[in-house]
From TrEMBL:
<feature type="transmembrane region" description="Helical">
    <location>
        <begin position="6"/>
        <end position="23"/>
    </location>
</feature>
<keyword id="KW-1133">Transmembrane helix</keyword>
<feature type="transmembrane region" description="Helical">
    <location>
        <begin position="351"/>
        <end position="371"/>
    </location>
</feature>
<protein>
    <submittedName>
        <fullName>DUF2029 domain-containing protein</fullName>
    </submittedName>
</protein>
<keyword id="KW-0812">Transmembrane</keyword>
<feature type="transmembrane region" description="Helical">
    <location>
        <begin position="104"/>
        <end position="125"/>
    </location>
</feature>
<feature type="transmembrane region" description="Helical">
    <location>
        <begin position="35"/>
        <end position="59"/>
    </location>
</feature>
<feature type="transmembrane region" description="Helical">
    <location>
        <begin position="218"/>
        <end position="239"/>
    </location>
</feature>
<feature type="transmembrane region" description="Helical">
    <location>
        <begin position="279"/>
        <end position="299"/>
    </location>
</feature>
<feature type="transmembrane region" description="Helical">
    <location>
        <begin position="392"/>
        <end position="410"/>
    </location>
</feature>
<feature type="transmembrane region" description="Helical">
    <location>
        <begin position="184"/>
        <end position="211"/>
    </location>
</feature>
<feature type="transmembrane region" description="Helical">
    <location>
        <begin position="146"/>
        <end position="172"/>
    </location>
</feature>
<keyword id="KW-0472">Membrane</keyword>
Length: 430
């Protein structure tokens, strides 16, 4: 349980520092206004690179969890010319290991995987800063970047866990300059995102593709880009690995994790409902798609002038927060998927309780995966099981994180009612 205590201590410390930043926001924003974008690089060095060096080089710890189980073996297999699914088990997209391979060629160590994920996050922060909240002053936008770097969840997921989730947002960002006038290239980029990340990226591709249908010519070129990059890879993988690429990814949905609606409801379910794994798996996917389609319909009917850049963060947050609630294999790590766009497009620092709730959500989501794992990955099949203090604590954390996911999904849906897109909204008061 030592890792749980370490993550808790780090998360609480960062939370206290964040409260201090919010308290002195006006002063800090004024200072940042006179600085430059190099502040983001300093934050990356101080809050990513230095903790990485202290944890993995000075103290000699080795990465665990997904880095050791999935990322490193997949990356090393790609470096050696292996075929994913056939030569190494993978629940990720076909090219996932191949973008890790160049990093591992420099240092074939699991710690290099963590460093690669840190570089990806740094790029995502820079691009998010560039594309969003352009109506704010430099100091206000830099404050968002500083605030993000201090959040407990991104810190823990990036430095301690080496999670890859932020790469989905990075690929979504890379398509922004192309979606206005170069649909074929935009399709290539987002198709590559599908091939280089994981299957849930398709949940973003579906609404984006549907919204391109407003312009038949644009949609045709966009689809051509997707097919150009996707079809050859799919055929090659099918030739070399058969249907393993479908089997290994789909089976991940069979595993029961927490927190999600299945884990929350489990103490109240009958044996028949608990054993209906397929219903929970596919039913959750269908409901996620329906919620996503509701967001698409709202954009289509009332925000027809919004560009890809305008609706992207809201449809992204809506999709992946809903997925985190409804998929039975969802875990609190998934909050890392949308934390960056949430901070830059929805967070209003004038709303004190929103900020406090966001910090609290980050603390719980940062420590819960390790706590749940070290308690034996519990699924409570009766209410009496919650009588134990540790079980009651863990289940309570599940409920709070679950509520947080729902709240942020609602906030994203509400953001689609804005009269103007985020790039044209009124600037926040400082």
């Amino acid at each position: 349980m030592s890792i749980v205590y370490i993550k808790t201590a780090v998360s609480v410390t960062l939370a206290l520092l964040l409260i201090g930043l919010l308290w002195q926001r006006s002063t800090l924003t004024a200072l940042l206004q006179r600085a430059g974008t190099w502040v983001l690089d300093v934050c990356w060095i101080a809050l990513r690179l230095v903790p990485f060096l202290a944890t993995y080089i000075v103290m000699g710890y080795q990465p665990q969890s997904d880095v050791a189980t999935f990322y490193y073996p997949i990356g090393m297999s790609a470096l050696e010319g292996g075929i994913p699914y056939r030569d190494v088990y993978s629940c990720y997209s076909p090219l996932f290991g191949y973008w890790l391979a160049p990093f591992l060629s420099l240092w074939s160590d699991m710690r290099m995987v963590v460093l690669a994920m840190m570089v990806v996050e740094g790029l995502a922060v820079r691009l998010t800063f560039r594309h969003y909240q352009i109506q704010e002053t430099m100091g206000q936008r830099l404050f968002r970047g500083v605030f993000y770097y201090f959040l407990p969840l991104p810190f823990v997921m990036c430095v301690f866990s080496g999670q890859e989730d932020v790469i989905l947002w990075l690929f979504a960002l890379l398509a922004i300059p192309l979606m206005q006038s170069r649909p074929f290239l935009a399709g290539l980029v987002l198709g590559l995102g599908m091939l280089a990340t994981k299957a849930v990226f398709i949940l973003l591709l579906i609404p984006v593709w549907l919204l391109t249908l407003r312009n038949a010519k644009f949609a045709a070129w966009f689809t051509a880009g997707l097919v150009t990059v996707g079809l050859p890879v799919a055929l090659f993988i099918f030739w070399k690995a058969g249907l393993l690429f479908l089997d290994q990814q789909s089976h991940e949905g069979d595993y029961l994790k927490a927190p999600n609606w299945r884990s929350i409801l489990n103490p109240f379910l009958s044996d028949g409902l608990r054993s209906a794994v397929g219903i929970w798996k596919w039913g959750g996917l269908i409901l996620t798609l329906l919620i996503m389609l509701q967001g698409v319909w709202r954009i289509h009917k009332t925000r027809s002038n919004w560009r890809y850049q305008d609706y992207l963060p809201f449809i992204y947050i809506l999709t992946y927060s809903a997925m985190s609630v409804l998929q039975q294999n969802a875990i609190s790590n998934y909050a890392y998927l949308f934390m960056l766009p949430l901070v830059f497009t929805i967070t209003d620092f004038r709303r004190l309780w929103f900020c406090v709730g966001l910090i609290g959500f980050n603390i719980l989501a940062a420590i819960h995966p390790s706590l749940w794992w070290r308690l034996g990955m519990p699924y409570y099949d009766r209410l009496s099981a919650l009588a134990k203090p540790t079980a009651a604590l863990e289940y309570s954390i599940e409920i709070l994180i679950f509520i947080g996911f729902i709240y942020y999904a609602i906030q994203a849906m509400n953001a689609l009612r804005r009269p103007k897109p985020v790039a044209q909204a009124e600037p926040y008061a400082v």
